[in-house]
Task: structure prediction
Amino acid sequence: MNPYDIFSSHVRDNSPVALVTIIEGPGVGALLVVTPQGIAAGTLGNAEIDRVVSRDAVGELEAGRTIVRHYGPHGESTPEDLNDTQTVRVFIESFSPPPLMWIFGAVDFTAALARVAKILGYHVTVCDAREIFATRRRFPMADEVRVTWPTPMFEERGMRLGPRDAVCILTHDPKFDVPAIQGALATKAGYIGVMGSRKTHAKRLERMAEVGITSAADLARVHSPIGLDLGGRTPEETAISIVGEIIATRTGRQASPLSSSDGAIH
Amino acid sequence: MRELLDDIDRWRTAGKRIALARVVDIQGSGPRGAGAAMAVNEDGEVIGSVSGGCVESAVVTEALAILAGEQPSRVVTFGYSDDDAFAVGLTCGGIIHLFIQPLEW
Result:
């Protein structure tokens, strides 16, 4: 297989891969396909530069970073080695699997949220214990629909969730949402949000306390009631307010209008 | 680039020559980050975008010149409003660096 086919099959399989290309200096256009295991195809021109750059690319890939780095023609990377030599600029482009969104509760809000999450590139799993609601036909936009309770779901694959991933609990049902919150808090998920009115939220806090969720650190991780205060009502408007909050949580922004501030936008 | 793969595969199967343009760096404000990509085939068909519409037509011109062998694979920069050669700029005032190469690998 040629480098493109190896590269594209990794991207399609959602298996991490970095595409490493010389963009300036000797060997422009030469490339390497790098996976977490090392070089999968290609060469930048010699074994030394391949070894150094592929090692760096594995690091960038693990961090999910896309970046330009500089080397000498044989992979020299310290400032003194780079004196009096040509510079090779290398573009390391990381393709990490899509972030995950787990949505608990097969309700109308779920369909709207799943649609919006797909636009943002999430791999979406809808989970509900009620077989008649958790169907593919109701959620064709989801990547996966699972009929199960939260606890087994988190026990089985909670370790897959990381800082880029989101858990949205839309059930409103104490039988379901408290175990889901407990399960989500035991993961490294970057965002946990729970739907409900102010009243529901207050009652839920009591039930969370009964099962031992009381630490300030845990409570700060749980966004409840879920979403930004956009004043929307429909499932679609609510979905936008939820993903807005997910983005703002990741970037650490306040989600106020740009027109009311004057800092850098990006 | 993920979103371009289906069309690229179709073009490759049809034996079309393809140029790939990828954003490698952005200075200042830019609508799309590093990794945003578009592809142009020898017939001038275009998929993807790199800037939200500000520089795409100029990228197509560069890509076709590279496919025709009139220019080597190289980094092309847009956004220097004081340079006539690259008069096409980003409305947001940023500078965008793209690497354009034939997809022959």
The mean pLDDT of chain A is 93. Chain A has nine helices and eleven strands.
